């Protein structure tokens, strides 16, 4: 009798346990142990990116550049006077260019002439005409861009120049060495504006014997590519 009862209870326990497990799994909010190992789904948010269009002016594919400039020329031992002239350039590579400049000005009075009134004149009116030309080699040392707005960008470059030429002043013709810097902004693919600094150096005998003079030029100009 006891053996039959024990056999009946033992045979019913696995079935009862299985039924309880299935019943619990059907209840709301009940999660089996194996579901706890599954990672939660990751929600991917795609950002809405709107591309920004920029109008950028490039240098034209042509290599020649011509233009005009005007500014102030400080003539050593004389006054600072207006200067104007023309320029032409050949862009040999992206970094190097060759430039020709011709400029004119007219010297004023020296400090000695101003203090003496109208009694002393070191130069005649014709000898006060100042003209120069030079051949320079330029190098674009800092090419970059100028941002005027979110939609408008211009190419630019800071450059160095050096070369030789000649200066006619005070009845003398003087071999001249020129060093300088400049800044260029490309407004259109055929139009640029410049701001330039130049030091024109030559030996002069006008005031004292064999004096090295520094004639500083500050000018701005407009050039065209073709």
Automatic annotation (TrEMBL):
InterPro entries: OMP_myx_plus_Proteobacteria. Keywords: Signal. Residues 1-33 form the signal peptide. It comes from the Bacteria. This is Outer membrane beta-barrel protein.
């Amino acid at each position: 009798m006891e053996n039959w009862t024990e056999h009946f209870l033992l045979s019913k326990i696995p079935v009862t346990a299985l039924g309880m497990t299935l019943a619990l799994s059907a209840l709301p909010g009940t999660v089996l142990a194996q579901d706890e190992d599954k990672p939660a789904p990751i929600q991917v948010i795609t950002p809405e990116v709107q591309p920004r269009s920029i109008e950028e002016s490039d240098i034209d594919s042509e290599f020649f550049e011509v233009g005009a400039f005007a500014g102030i020329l400080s003539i050593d031992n004389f006054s600072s006077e207006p200067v104007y002239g023309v320029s032409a350039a050949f862009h040999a590579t992206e970094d190097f260019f060759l430039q020709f400049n011709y400029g004119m000005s007219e010297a004023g009075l020296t400090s000695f002439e101003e203090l003496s009134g109208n009694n002393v004149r070191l130069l005649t009116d014709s000898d006060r005409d100042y003209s120069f030309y030079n051949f320079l080699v330029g190098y674009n040392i800092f090419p970059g861009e100028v941002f005027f707005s979110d939609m408008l960008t211009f190419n630019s470059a800071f450059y160095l120049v050096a070369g030789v030429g000649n200066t006619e002043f005070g009845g003398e013709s003087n071999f001249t060495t020129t060093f300088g810097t400049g800044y260029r902004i490309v407004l259109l693919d055929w139009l640029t504006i410049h701001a330039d600094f130049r030091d024109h150096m030559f030996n002069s005998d006008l005031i004292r014997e064999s004096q090295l003079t520094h004639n500083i030029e500050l000018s701005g100009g407009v050039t065209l590519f073709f």
